[in-house]
Structure formats: C-alpha cells, structure tokens
Design a protein that fits this description.
The protein is α+β, with helices and mostly antiparallel strands and 308 residues long. The protein is built from 4 helices and 18 strands. Strands 1-4-5-6-7-8 form a 6-stranded antiparallel beta sheet, with no helix packed on it. Strands 14-15-16-17-18 form a 5-stranded antiparallel beta sheet. The protein has a 4-stranded antiparallel beta sheet with strand order 10-11-12-13, with no helix packed on it.
C-alpha cells in the first residue's frame, strides 16, 4: 500500500507555497483596484463604504457580486436595519415599480449627530440587484450606481465587464434586420399597425422592442422570445419624434445624472400632441435595469417607469 502520510515539514512547505501564490495574485489584483471593505454588522460605518451584493449567477457573469456606491458631500454613516422597518412609502414604491421583487437588505443613512438623512433599500428584480435611495420620509431619490470589484477606483466599468456598455458604444443595440423571426411574426400578428423603431438586448438575452403607432410601446421579449411585457410609453394621439442626446437640454441631462448615476442613454423622443411639444421621453440603462423617464416641456421630471 502506498504511504500517504505527509510529515510536518512537507506540509509547511506546501502551505507556504500556496500562500506565496495567493500573495502574488493579490499583488496583481491590487494594481487594478483596492480590496473593498464590506461591513456586515449593524455598527455605524462610513456611508461611502461600498455594499457588497451577491449576483447569484446573474447573466452568467464571471463576478460573484457587485458593489453599491453611495456618495455624499459631508460625513455620513450607515447602519443596517430590518427591511420590515422601512417606511410604508418605500415598500409601496417598490411594490408598484418593481413587481415581484425580493428584498435583500436595508440601511439608514445618518449624520454624525444621529439625524436620519435617508434610506437605502437593496432588492432583487428580474434576477439582478437594484439599489434605491429614499429621503428620510421614504420618497424616492435615486437609483444608486453599482460597480464590479475591479472598477471601484476607475470609471466604473471595463470591456467585458457587467457594465461595459457605459463606454457609450451601444453594444446592446440590435440591428432591426437581425431581429428573430419569432419576434417579427409576433408583432405582425398582434400589433400589425406598429412600426418597430428600436431594439436592445439585455444581459439576460431578453430583447426590448420599441414600436410606434399613434403613441409608443415598449415590448419586452424574454430569452425564450416570449412576450413578457407590452408597456404604453406615450398616450394616444401622442406622436414620438426621435432626438439625439446632444439635443436634450442640460436641465434634463443633469436630472438624469443625479437620479441614475453612470446611466447609459439608449434613445430619446420628443412627445408631440397636435404639433405642440409636451416634453422628452428617455429610455436608459441603469445598472442593467431599463427605465423610461418622462420630462415636461420645461425639463421637469414627470415620471420614470421600469421597463425591464
């Protein structure tokens, strides 16, 4: 019989070799990003400390988690709280806008004197995490940015990463000539008067089709090419006119940046009724969740709808 005993000296050498390899790996990674500090207790820590959220295999990504970013001008602190203690307004907003979401965690944000400033709620929606900030009474403020570990100290994305579309090269755009026949046939049979004007593919391989017909619609087909949602994006008699991001007012763009940090501009429309401009409609991608955001003619935020 073969002797499988390993003496203490051999074992020590093996452990030291393994540690040396691990140390080498850490040195290589440290050149990309510092190791994040992730707090898992309810002890107050800096609100700007990234929050780690497990992906659970989202979109077959190589990463196992993302990090929620919180920025502030002053010194603020974060405490984890039971999700059930979130204000009723927060829970209602999430129920109405993120149907069938799963609550993952919740936090309070306070100043050094313990005065409550806001809430952070992290949910799972369509298999992906969404982090939302609310003010101290539970009114929605913004969708917090997410980053992968390697991108904590850069622009928040890298080619091949979960948020690579942030480079603005529109990798998620689908050529209309290459739309699957199943989608074309469904639209022809069920919405024969609709004109397909845009299409985008999500990380989960779902396809969002924007169509126009005396109004506008967002049609979401899942990865099995089955219709999952048919969402009206403009009232009847509302005509949609394509616009470029460069023509959107600075007021609208500032609101978008404040509400959806590091968002991706997919496309925009001007809403016209009887030849009069009623404002802008913007489809954007925030951390792989798509939103339709409406503004009035003066650039004031009217609403934002979750598309997928």
């Amino acid at each position: 019989m073969k002797n499988t005993n390993i003496n203490p000296i051999q074992r020590s050498i093996a452990i030291m070799a393994a540690l040396a390899i691990l140390s080498s790996c850490k040195k290589e990674l440290s050149s990309v990003s510092p190791t994040p500090t992730v707090e898992t207790t309810t002890t107050s820590i800096s609100a700007s400390t990234p929050i780690s959220v497990a992906l659970n295999g989202f979109a077959n990504t190589q990463s196992d988690s993302v990090y929620v970013m919180y920025t502030s001008d002053g010194e603020l602190f974060r405490d984890e709280i039971p999700a059930i203690t979130l204000p009723a307004a927060v829970q209602q907003y999430q129920t109405e806008n993120y149907q069938q979401n799963d609550q993952l965690s919740a936090y309070t944000i306070s100043d050094k004197d313990g005065n409550l400033k806001s809430y952070v709620s992290i949910i799972r929606y369509n298999e992906r995490p969404v982090a939302l900030e609310y003010n101290f009474v539970g009114t929605f403020k913004k969708v917090l940015e997410q980053r992968e570990w390697a991108d904590l100290d850069n622009d928040g994305w890298h080619i091949g990463g979960l948020f690579e579309d942030r480079d603005g090269n529109n990798r998620d755009v689908v050529n209309l000539n290459l739309l699957p026949d199943e989608i074309k046939n469904y639209m022809t049979n069920n919405y024969p008067d609709d004109i397909i004007v845009r299409a985008f593919q999500t990380k989960e391989e779902a396809i969002i089709v924007i169509s126009k017909n005396n109004g506008g619609f967002a049609n979401v087909f899942n990865k099995n090419l089955e219709l999952q949602k048919h969402l009206s994006i403009c009232d009847v008699n509302c005509q949609l006119e394509d616009i470029e991001k460069s023509t959107v007012s600075s007021k609208v763009l500032t609101t978008l940046s404040n509400t959806f940090p590091n968002y991706i501009f997919n496309y925009g429309d001007m809403m016209n009724v009887n030849g009069v401009s009623m404002g802008n409609l913007i489809l954007l991608n925030a951390n792989n969740t798509r939103y339709l955001v409406a503004f009035d003619a003066n650039g004031n935020l009217l609403s934002n709808k979750v598309v997928f």
